[in-house]
Amino acid sequence: MFRHFADERERGQAVLCFFQILEHLQPSQTAVTKEKMKWRNQLLALVCLLAFLGVGVIYFQHWVIRKPFGIILFVGEGLSPARLAPTRTYAAGAGSRLNMDSMPFAALVMNYSKDFAAPDQAAAATAIATGDRVTNRAIAINAEAKPIKSIIELAREYGRATGLVTDAKLTDPTNAAFYAHMGDPNDTEKIAAEFLDRGNIDIAMGGGAAQFVPATKGGERQDTRDLLLELRGNGFDIVRTRTDLEAVPAWRRPKLFGIFSNNDLAFANQVEERGQQPSLSDMV
Predict the structure, then answer these.
(1) Helix (H) or strand (E) holding 258
(2) Which of 52, 213, 239, 280 has the fewest CB atoms below 10 angstroms from its CB?
């Protein structure tokens, strides 16, 4: 194929020229190979990414403990199965279901007190608020009269915002178990004072204004303390009517104290008494 060349230099140049000609004559395999490898690498990267995301989702669903942003505890006085059964019947017949029946889980709690099979309000509420069983008349205190931490106080220790909303008096034993510690549930003046002095609640709404205002100003306190004025001095916004409550901007998170009646709030069917009192859903 090669003619005789005079020297080695000419022969080398001829060989180089020959391979350059072959390269131009046949299609380039290098570019095709690079393009295939590029697509293969991209596909492999996509598969790895999807596999990683899939494993992450499975891990999150089955092994990661998801903490709730907030906890809302509803307490119904005497809300036992014996009362729920006639409630269903009254609502829509014996076979009907209430909204609470749609919840995925249900549990029954025996909240008898330490000294009686039937607990009073103080002992029953303490069992819910603290998880400890106490004697009747005891509000979040043990047998040695030492305070037992409530769920609200634990939340405050972790820097969480807290609130208490009720359609009864804020000094009612059921409500007091979440912020007060004492042995006499009837001493509502002291319970109201503990609400202010302990300062563990950011937002509170309900009735019972008479326990926060002295008798000289139309309340029932026998001392001279005006707890509403003291609360205002501690940075609380005081609201007394539904109109006042609606005027509070929704974007604000103030320290709010709503007190809408001297006693318990009126029932929903007591239209005249309800007047400017907000409903439970308004407050929640």
Answers:
(1) strand 255-259
(2) 52
pLDDT at site 23 = 54
Q: How many CB atoms lie within 10 A of CB 37?
A: 10
Residue with tokens 């103030």: 254
Q: Identify the CA nearest to 192 among candidates 270, 202, 63, 207.
A: 207
Residue type, 221: R
**pLDDT tens for residues 141-187?**
999 999 999 999 999 999 999 999 999 999 999 999 999 999 999 99
Work out the pLDDT band at 1, boundaries 50, 70, 90.
Answer: very low
Buried b (16+ CB within 10 A) or exposed e, 196-210: beeebbbbbbbbbbb
Amino acid residing at 173: P
pTM: 0.74
Q: CA angle 253-261-197, nearest 5°?
A: 55
Task: Quote the CA–CA distance of 104 and 61 in Å, as a whole number.
Answer: 18
Q: How many CB atoms lie within 10 A of CB 75?
A: 14
Pairing of strands 236-239, 163-169: unpaired
Contact 147, 181 (CB under 8 A): yes
